[in-house]
């Protein structure tokens, strides 16, 4: 996970410990809403609810905004979640916690919250935020978890939270998520954490294409290394403040490995390559993901537009190639046909000082 936080810390009347997962007796004052209810949104709600139930600085109840759907049996998804305490479509078999309340009304779900957790496909964020203008409390804080991972079965995982200034606020967010099986660290690099979480999905598409053509682990490892290098270079070109050390946090190389070995982007890209590109990513997404959304294809398009606008196409051959394969301009085999020698990253690093 590679979340980042924005917002101001609400006024408090008593001191608060910043040690992750420690219990202390303080009057509850932070109310949490999860904006999104897919697989990862439901996992996040489960994690958070386990902590709000035991840490006095949080209200017990966790609202989870549900984009309403009608299940095959005719029942509304939100009603099914509240009756069974499970997201029967996106996370079946996992109890969320009795203090998780599914709410299909976005405005109602957020109106009392002062901590918002966004966990929706990134292409929907702008529309959701427009709907929330004037609907949230002053000084509300927000964190973005817009990416995916599976920890609901309580296997050991870790995550990174990026913050801009207030480390105490970041550590409170860490307390909200931290469990014995899910460790959370904080780093002062919002842009680096955010871009790691975004760009790794493009590299995962490339890794899936390699898998679909049965090119083997050595080729896949090379693609991942080149991908990480392009991730770092683009991040530092866009935001020179990005720290190299961020790429060695769990949000960086660890999450890149996980996403390239599993995950929905790799899965769909593998199927695309096996079918010689005869079926589009949209078709395969609908068939293979059960209503979940890809991130890599739309992110690759956004990256392509940035590179084209700034004249950086030649510097990032992997990113450019992924997009051109996704839209059918190149065959899947093109993922290993470009030359990395065209990229001089010493020039990139020097250029970053002037961007």
TrEMBL record:
Residues of the Glycerol-3-phosphate dehydrogenase NAD-dependent C-terminal domain: 189-336
Cross-referenced InterPro entries: 6-PGluconate_DH-like_C_sf, 6PGD_dom2, G3P_DH_NAD-dep, G3P_DH_NAD-dep_C, G3P_DH_NAD-dep_N, NAD(P)-bd_dom_sf
Transmembrane segments: none
Family that this chain belongs to: Belongs to the NAD-dependent glycerol-3-phosphate dehydrogenase family.
GO CC entries: cytosol
Residues binding NAD(+): 36-41, 67, 124, 264, 293, 295
PROSITE patterns recorded: NAD_G3PDH
Alphabetical keyword list: NAD, Oxidoreductase
Protein's name in the database: Glycerol-3-phosphate dehydrogenase [NAD(+)]
Catalytic activity: sn-glycerol 3-phosphate + NAD(+) = dihydroxyacetone phosphate + NADH + H(+)
Organism from which the protein derives: Musa troglodytarum (fe'i banana)
PANTHER family the record matches: GLYCEROL-3-PHOSPHATE DEHYDROGENASE, GLYCEROL-3-PHOSPHATE DEHYDROGENASE [NAD(+)]-RELATED
Gene3D superfamilies the UniProt entry points to: N-(1-d-carboxylethyl)-l-norvaline Dehydrogenase, domain 2, NAD(P)-binding Rossmann-like Domain
GO molecular function, one term: glycerol-3-phosphate dehydrogenase (NAD+) activity
EC number from the UniProt entry: 1.1.1.8
Residues annotated as the enzyme's active site: 200
UniProt: substrate binding residues: 147, 264-265
Domain (Glycerol-3-phosphate dehydrogenase NAD-dependent N-terminal) ranges: 32-156
Biological process terms in GO annotation: carbohydrate metabolic process; glycerol-3-phosphate catabolic process
């Amino acid at each position: 996970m590679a979340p980042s936080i924005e917002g101001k810390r609400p006024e408090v009347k008593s001191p608060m410990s910043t040690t992750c997962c420690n219990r202390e007796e303080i009057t509850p004052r932070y109310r949490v809403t999860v904006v999104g209810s897919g697989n990862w949104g439901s996992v996040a709600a489960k994690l958070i609810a386990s902590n709000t139930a035991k840490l006095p600085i949080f209200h017990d109840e966790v609202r989870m905004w549900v984009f309403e759907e009608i299940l095959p049996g005719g029942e509304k998804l939100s009603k099914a979640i509240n009756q069974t305490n499970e997201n029967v479509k996106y996370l079946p078999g996992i109890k969320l916690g009795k203090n998780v309340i599914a709410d299909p009304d976005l405005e109602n779900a957020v109106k009392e919250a002062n901590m918002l957790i966004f966990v929706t496909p990134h292409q929907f964020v702008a529309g959701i935020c427009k709907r929330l203008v004037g609907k949230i409390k002053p000084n509300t804080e927000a964190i973005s978890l817009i990416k995916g991972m599976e920890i609901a079965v309580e296997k050991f995982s870790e995550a990174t939270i990026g913050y801009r200034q207030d480390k105490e606020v970041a550590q409170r967010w860490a307390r909200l998520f931290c469990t014995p099986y899910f460790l959370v660290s904080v780093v002062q690099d919002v842009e680096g954490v955010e871009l790691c979480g975004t760009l790794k999905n493009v590299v995962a598409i490339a890794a899936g294409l390699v898998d679909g053509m049965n090119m083997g682990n050595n080729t896949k490892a090379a693609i991942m290394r080149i991908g990480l290098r392009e991730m770092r270079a683009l991040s530092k070109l866009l935001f020179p403040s990005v720290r190299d050390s961020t790429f060695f946090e769990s949000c960086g190389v660890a999450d890149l490995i996980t996403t390239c070995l599993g995950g929905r982007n790799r899965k769909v890209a593998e199927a695309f390559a096996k079918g010689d590109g005869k079926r589009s990513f949209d078709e395969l997404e609908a068939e293979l993901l059960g209503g979940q959304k890809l991130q890599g294809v739309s992110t690759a398009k956004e990256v392509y537009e940035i590179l084209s606008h700034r004249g950086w196409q030649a510097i990032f051959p992997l990113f450019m190639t992924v997009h051109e394969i996704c839209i059918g301009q190149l065959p899947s085999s093109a993922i290993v046909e470009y030359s990395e020698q065209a990229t001089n990253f010493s020039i990139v690093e020097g250029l970053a000082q002037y961007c």
